């Protein structure tokens, strides 16, 4: 059986959507190193992408004077990520249902639903500008 | 055929246009913007277009990309055309199901099946 890897932690500070790619590449490497399977990797990468994009686009509205901080803790059992933006937050308890007939043909509004669907835990702080996500490994690593 | 585009390839089979993606990860916001513009350019000025968007090789797709597909569908229908999506991998298909977009788009197993039904 392969030796379990220690937990890996890292943090990033970004404020433009173009900077998401460097975080994406780091995350891809960590998921591979910890032997996360295809389904888990898809879920984690998608949730990260949606959360980071929302934080920059809606949280700080791409204001160069504000930042988004992303922290990861990756181990063999789970992946935790915290995305904190310096924006005012939002009312996360009252988000329009993107699958409703009046919304289904809108071009935006699906990110939060996808995050909830693919992550095992989704926690917002009180004002909605800090998001913590947890995905537990669902597929056994190779022995 | 038709490689005037940065993000997609275009193949024409009879009266059907088949578009494929050069990137396996359709996540990057800048790339998605370019993909959307290129898809729209394929449709522009083509009445009654029969368009297949083939997802063979696409590994990841963000919700922003879904938005571009919705825009594309709107443009195709405005041009009295038809749009089919093909070869969507299971994880991405789950995204379509969660968002109910599998009820909006005509999704086929592969290009062959899509061509047969035009």
Put the structure in a nutshell.
Chain A has 143 residues and is an alpha+beta fold. Chain A is built from three helices and five strands. Chain A has one domain: 2-Layer Sandwich (Heat Shock Protein 90).
Task: Outline the structure in words.
The complex is a heterodimer of chains A (143) and B (118). Chain A has 143 residues and is α+β, with helices and mostly antiparallel strands. Chain A has one domain (8-136): 2-Layer Sandwich (Heat Shock Protein 90). Chain A contains 3 helices and 5 strands. A 5-stranded antiparallel β-sheet of chain A has the order 1-2-3-5-4, with helices on one face. In chain A, β2 and β3 form a beta hairpin. In chain A, α1 runs antiparallel to α2 (38-59) and α2 runs antiparallel to α3 (111-118). Chain B has 118 residues and is an alpha/beta fold. Chain B has a single domain (8-116), classed as STAS domain (Transcription Regulator spoIIAA). Chain B has helices spanning 29-43, 63-78, 90-98, 111-116, and strands at residues 8-13, 16-21, 25-26, 50-54, 60-61, 82-86, 106-108. In chain B, strands 1-2-4-6-7 form a 5-stranded mixed β-sheet. In chain B, β6 (82-86), α3 (90-98) and β7 form a beta-alpha-beta unit. The model of chain B has no long low-confidence stretch (mean pLDDT 93). Chains A and B meet through α1, α2 and α3 of A and α2 and α3 of B.
